[in-house]
Design goal:
The protein is mainly beta and 236 residues long. It has one domain: monomeric porin ompg (Porin), CATH 2.40.160. It has one helix and eleven strands. The protein has an eleven-stranded mixed barrel with strand order 1-2-3-4-5-6-7-8-9-10-11.
Length: 236
């Protein structure tokens, strides 16, 4: 067992060394175009419960910082229910209660609702995931008349994870695109995220993860944020 783990570790290190220069080359043009840069850390914890063979319930909490990780940007609680249509396709509905920092330097509640169509396909040691999300947000802090009405966003996320039974560390990459639907921002894409990280399975029920996210927000003006995310997950 030790020899197998050692060989897997060596193989993963070789893969990371080969992929790292490629990832850096892809990110350099993005960073070079940025007008404002920031750094933040996102802390999260989540739990999932299998209610039946087809129904899962989940709950999560997250705290996000920005301004070089020195100030809280927002915190939220989220709960949802997922229904498996097939072995690789599911739908989910969820609600998120957020308290976010607004332009007057105070924190106000926001209400978000999500409807997701998700796919999950395993091929060899890789798990490929896709998510099409419809999001609506209601604000309680109004700067103009438009803020009194909900805004709608479409989100497309693609993720790939490498898993093996002999090795508890599972590397992953993902990309996510945000598309404003009801307001007139002058752009088709409002935000992009690119991420790479690892998930470590402590036991079958407990896992932790850590990763890097590069986020580019185009609205109301172009800003870049470099984010470190750390999280804990539990399965009942």
């Amino acid at each position: 067992m030790f020899l197998v783990r050692w060989k897997m570790t060596r193989m993963m290190m070789m893969m990371i060394k080969k992929l790292l220069p490629v990832v850096l080359l892809l990110l350099i043009p993005l960073v070079a175009e940025g007008q404002d840069d920031d750094f933040g850390i996102w802390y999260s914890a989540g739990a999932k419960l299998g209610v039946t063979n087809r129904i899962n319930a989940d709950i999560s909490a997250e705290l996000r910082t920005f301004r070089n990780a020195g100030k809280i940007e927002q915190g939220f609680l989220e709960a949802g229910m997922e229904y498996k249509l097939t072995n690789f396709l599911s739908v989910e509905g969820s609600y998120r209660l957020t308290k976010a920092l607004e332009d007057n330097s105070d924190y106000y509640f926001q209400h978000k609702a999500f409807v997701d169509l998700k796919s999950n396909v395993k091929t060899g040691s890789f798990t490929l995931q896709g998510r099409l999300r419809f999001q609506t947000r209601f604000k309680t802090y109004f700067e103009d008349v438009e803020d009194q009405y909900p805004d709608y966003t479409g989100r497309i996320k693609l993720k790939a994870m490498y898993r093996t039974a002999a090795f508890p560390v599972n590397p992953y990459i993902y990309t996510e695109t945000f598309i404003p639907l009801n307001k007139k921002p002058g752009r088709f894409i409002g935000k992009n995220r690119f991420s790479a990280g690892v998930e470590y399975s402590i036991t079958k029920k407990h896992s932790i993860e850590a990763g890097y996210i590069f986020q580019r927000d185009y609205l109301p003006h172009m800003t870049d944020e470099n984010i470190i995310n750390v999280g804990y997950n539990f399965k009942f």
